[in-house]
Specification:
Strand order of the largest sheet: 1-2-3-7-8-9-10-11-12
Radius of gyration: 17 Å
Number of helices: 7
Order of helices and strands: EEHEEEEHEHEHEHHEHEE
Shape: globular
Distance between the termini: 49 Å
Strand content: 15-25%
Largest sheet: 9 strands, mixed
């Protein structure tokens, strides 16, 4: 059953403002001493004391949750029935796409993950792989399917007092801008779609942008574009380790 929560104030949304410095670390080695305003991490990689320490330093925290793929290593992998699991994600062979039309199955699973983020003390949620409709998932998914699914997850996050961000999927910005509290992008400068996220900046909501060193990259140009658009841009390795360069350059 899809639970529709009443509208509530989102405590976590106030932790994120345009122009904040940030880092994104999902793979070892980690550096939790980094002096940034926002840290995006995987809750399975850090104990509650580490998350509390970040909060005590005034760092807003974002909780990584893949909402569009089944990850073989997660503790709740057994909660996904076979009929909602599709093709293997070519770039990530330990992940398989999910049938996001199955709100009855997936929303409760993701609500439990989001509730864990809240219990651990995170301020926001990164719903990764929300662009599953734009991949060879094995299911006939559409943008409308994604909007319906992500709005349901946004309701869950907000009910728990957490902010939630749009992850990539620039074509969904007009539909989701009123539901999301920030955005996270990968390679928008390298692929030429950063301007699609301008509605977030216009609404006073931050865009946390990452560009990758495994692709051709003119850091000076990227940072100039970032400044002109008001994005918070970092340069990262594809595995999202502690390695980081920030803009301005």
């Amino acid at each position: 059953m899809l639970i529709v929560w009443p509208a509530v104030a989102v405590a976590g949304a106030g932790a994120f403002t345009a122009g904040q410095s940030w880092d994104w670390q999902l793979t070892e080695p980690f550096d939790m001493t980094r002096d940034v305003a926002v840290m995006d991490i995987d809750p399975d990689n850090h104990d509650p004391a580490e998350i509390a320490a970040l909060t005590a330093r005034g760092i807003a925290t974002i909780c990584y949750v893949s909402v569009g793929t089944l990850e073989a290593w997660r503790d709740d992998v057994g909660a996904f029935p076979p009929d909602v699991v599709g093709r293997t994600y070519d770039d990530w062979p330990d992940e398989r796409f999910l049938d996001i039309r199955r709100l009855d199955i997936l929303v409760p699973i993701m609500e439990a993950r989001i509730a864990r983020c809240a219990a651990l003390g995170f301020d926001g949620v990164e719903p990764d792989n929300m662009d599953v409709y734009d991949n060879a998932s094995g299911f006939p998914l559409t943008e409308d399917d994604a909007v319906t699914y992500i709005r349901a997850l946004a309701d869950s996050a907000h009910r728990l007092g957490l902010a939630i961000g749009q992850k990539n999927a620039p074509g969904l910005t007009p539909a989701l801008i009123s539901d999301m509290d920030f955005a996270i992008t990968e390679g928008c400068a390298q692929d030429g779609w950063c301007s699609a996220m301008s509605p977030y900046i216009a609404a006073g909501k931050p865009v946390f942008a990452a560009e990758y060193t495994d692709r051709p990259l003119d850091v000076a140009d990227v940072c100039a574009q970032s400044a002109s658009l008001g994005l918070s841009t970092i340069i990262k390795d594809r595995d999202l380790t502690a390695t980081r360069r920030g803009c301005p350059e």
